[in-house]
Amino acid sequence: MPNPQLKRGGLYEVRVAGRDDRQVDFVRLMAAETRRLYAYIRLLVMNDETDTEDVFQSTSMALWKKFEDYDSSRDFGAWARRMAFYEVLRQREKRRRIRLLSDEALAALADAAEPLSQHIEHRRDALSACLDRLSNEDRGTIHARYFEGVSTREIAERAGRSVDAIYRDLARIHGLLLRCIERNVT
Amino acid sequence: MVDPQRQLAEIRELTVRCTDGAATPEQVRRLSQLLEDPHLAGDAAAVLDLEGALSDAMQYRKAIARSVFSLPWLEQYGWRLTAIAACLLISHIAVFAIGQKTSQDDSASGAAAGAQVVVRPANLQLVSTTACLWDPGEFGEPILGQSLDDGQVLSLLEGIAELEIRQKSGGKSAVRIEGPANVTVRGGGRLGLEFGSITADVFSAGEPFEFDVPNGRVIVGDSARIGVIAAGERDEVHVFEGRAKIRAKQIVLEPSIQTIESGQGARLLPGSLGELNYRPIDASRAAFATAISMGLDRLELDDQYRHAVLESRPSLYWSFSEESQDADNGVGDIGLQPREVGLVGSANYGDNSAVAFGSRSFPCAVLSDGLWPDEPLDDYSIEFWVKPNHYHCGAVLSLFGERTRNGQYGHGVLVEIGGPYNFGTLTPVGRLRYLHRNPVSTEPRVGNSCFADTPYRLRRWHHVVARKQAEEMSLFVNGALQATAQDPKPLPSNLHLLIGQLYPPEDLDSELSTLHRPFVGQVDEVALYDRALKDEEIVNHFELGRSLPTD
Fold it and tell me: How far is the CA of B24 from the CAs of A79, B14, B28, B355, in angstroms?
């Protein structure tokens, strides 16, 4: 085991000369799970980009710290997502979109997110096809919001409608897309 | 009895409001209550997943859409998330006494932990361009002076375009896009660099100024000058002045935010196992055309140079300097006279001046007022100095014949530079080409060419001599022989000399007058000879011109 060099002053670095098998194992496992883990965390923090990055990083650190305790016979992804859930709970007060959610609500969301994150590739594939099946008007709303980055308020102004009406429309369009995705995935 | 469909509609709407940041505390509590039902939680999770997928597609959209919704994340996001695992650096591990702290110290302006400070600019517009080639895409070519909209994509194939961003804080920043590049105007005033290079002078009056790159986000401090490159899997940030931070996506076991000080840079790229790596580098202005001033390399020629050229007995000599027109000192222009077409610019270097092309999007060129040579020439030389503004495909100098039926002009000689967007020419990117043709022709495959071995340097003067002696063609750059070729035929007679683009601009008031492979940069000291210059003459002329090196 290479000798570490500790550098004090706030940042502690452990420099490892040469390749460490344990590190390589961890990297390989994380490389395979990052996409699902990231999608899982993002869902739990309700798609806040900054919160997702912060929780992902802290989860990764926690996973590495506890990697010695990881039982390789277990599903690494499931273990990682469990750790991520605990990180979300631990940091909930700092995460503006979820700090008012109850423990039960977060737990239910985490349970629901588990199967979704495992089928992310299929769902993405299905989404492409389902978008083409929307009506022109609905597709225009989706395009404005997600592809042009137009705010909901501006969409409402352009359409001459209320913001509440646009949110109801988005909810309806999401329902259409979800039904289509479910049909294509199952 | 609760209507399940109404509940689903309600939870979907509340979920969308939450992700928009538009839910009131009461609405969030209502959402929390509904989520405790596993069936409703499943639907809410599916909506969140759907929103995430659509947002990712927006982030990585490309200018050229294959369908109404080309979902580029299928190509780019997909490989990114599987390939870039953002894990452990193989070479070292960072333990995180400061890691956690750093992740909370977010932004040059000291924003609260986890908060995302985004300045909404009052106005973002295109303020100047060189001769540019745009891919119009869905939005059409951007128009000078017109404000740019959120979601608008600027797909610059070739050239340099400058944006001005006026922020509500009172700051005003300049961003220069170096083609080829794709830049998206994101919601909230942020620019997204999908690929290519940009430089920026940021004066944001204390507010942070941000760019998205594929691997993260660059947060630029006030009074900073930076360059950013997005090149496939690799992103780079160069800080020339001031300070910036880079926030990497999905980087693990290292602080996701790294501070970059003046003179330093950072590179993000995947490692051998797909993990994202952060590498410190030195900031390099040479990586960016727009980071180098066009005025930095000066061509301060004196009468000694001009006498040397005249001693070589040119048939035509254009020095483009007013001082050289004084016949008393014996160094005036000779031969055919130059005629400017369009707004040809000028660059002054002490007593020497050069002509400048392509600083605007309008045709301009310098033409001879007569024809040369009187008879076909087995031997001839063409000499000039050239300073390219950026990498592009541009016709620097040519000798052309009469107009053809399809409105083109056949060339007998062409000297051009190669760029990333190829107009079907044979000239490689970054290289000089000397083409000789007899008979004059517009066909790309007719004639023979020399291609310089070494790339031309941006915003630096190059001494160029294209020489033909009997069958042998030679291309010299800065006194050194770069390439040779063979062509048995002489230079045709009665050709026009043209500098600045491939064909002469016609009828500038007409909408049909267009840019034909324009050269963007400066040219000086053009000389034509009806003989082959000796190698030592070429070296002597170059050394006299570079007697005061600026490197």
Answer: 34, 10, 6, 63
